[in-house]
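Z., the sequence and structure:
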Amino acid sequence: MPRFIDISQLGDARLQKKLDRLDKRVQKAIVRRGLRKAAKDVLDSARANVAVDTGALRDGLAVKAVKPKRGVFGLQIATPTRAELGIDAEAKGFYPAVLEYGSENHTARPYLRPALDENREKARATIAESIRAELDAATS
């Protein structure tokens, strides 16, 4: 039987077996809470890394759920919308993207990718720890 949620990336087969025994809704809730805890560290790093002019971009960065597709769900660190940043809808360019990737006139000053890179291992550990604690509580 295929798994509803595969956490094999965390490297703990016992954790996966415990998770597989639970109802799908419970599995999803447990994993989402673990993802949210890990995403907070990435969000904090992104906020610390981003170049600040008015602070609107830094303050508008947020953790948001990714709409599930083909059974895959997750979270993302989202930038504020054009409207939230006070950018005209017809304006060319989007400065959060220009900061991250650069342009022909601006050198890249990435803030999202470095935040993920510097927190990758900590995020995995946080997710595993959160899932383990909730599974131990749910199955004991």
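The beta strands are 62-69, 72-78. The longest helix spans residues 112-139.

Let me know what you think.
H.
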